[in-house]
Design goal:
alpha/beta; Rex_actinobacterial-type; single chain; binds nicotinamide-adenine-dinucleotide; seven-stranded mixed sheet; 38% helix; Arc Repressor Mutant, subunit A; 13% strand; Rossmann fold; WH_DNA-bd_sf; two-stranded antiparallel ribbon; cytoplasm; 3 domains
Amino acid sequence: MTAHGEGERDEAGQPADVPSGSGSPAESIAVPAARERARAIPEAAVARLAVYLRVLSGLEERGTGTVSSEELAAFAGVNSAKLRKDLSYIGSYGTRGVGYDVAVLIGQIERTLGLTKKHRVAVAGIGNLGHALANYGGFLNRGFPVAALFDLDPDLLDVPVGGIPVSSVDDIVEVCREREVTIGVIATPTEGAQDVCDRLVEGGVVCILNFAPVVLQVPEHVEVRKVDLAVEMQILSFHVARRNQEAMVVPGVAGTDAGPPGGGANGNGNSDSAPERGDVDGMVVRP
Ligand SMILES: NC(=O)c1ccc[n+]([C@@H]2O[C@H](COP(=O)([O-])OP(=O)(O)OC[C@H]3O[C@@H](n4cnc5c(N)ncnc54)[C@H](O)[C@@H]3O)[C@@H](O)[C@H]2O)c1
């Protein structure tokens, strides 16, 4: 049997965030309420939780009941210490010698990520990017059905893309309210993005995923995430440059994560953004 929840032990018999030698978790730490815990989860860990969820869903489909932290870590491409730390944020410590109950862990991650209810998605701007997003079937499987598409090009109106007819931007408010859309994806040019955003919000949208290269103004209750693939490439470029610098600083041990001075893997105390060495077949695994 697999036990989960607050105060349970990891596979090494210790709560993941209590150093060995401490007393029982119940005695030594006050476990914060679930909401407090959710607030304390670092952004990078949230992204990894989504990856664990995808892996776990695949395992569940194949009828797997339990999974060890090493297996789950290898499937997700992270190291197992980081995985145990991430899961400790949601109060899941697994059971020694058994691992994690797949169904229970899926439920815990879904609750943490707010996925217990489906979020209907609207895409505005059905050009190159909008077409690709609207045609991608994978959002539905992950609980994000695309429910509405908007554009201002008269040639696109009523044309089905991915099975959904394109509506006019003039109808954003009405259609979003009617179809209970909560996530809006903006794939319009810069001009028009703020106007589309305002209409989506008026239509009840509370999350915006913005691809347009513009900073959007939104009310307090609306969450915005900006997607910029060029920034991601710049970050990759930074990591390669840092690697090369480290190889020069420590001659003869190229590839060793000697780390910059100041302690910690990246010298800023933020192990979440630090590259890590994993133990999967001698390969480096990164979140
Ligand atoms: N962040 C990224 O990594 C990334 C990558 C690719 C594209 N983009 C951005 O995504 C956006 C779309 O790129 P694309 O290549 O698909 O462009 P595109 O020109 O192919 O498509 C834009 C679509 O938006 C429609 N449109 C224009 N104004 C509108 C409005 N006010 N309301 C609704 N629809 C409107 C156009 O009719 C067109 O169908 C651009 O802003 C681009 O810079 C971002």
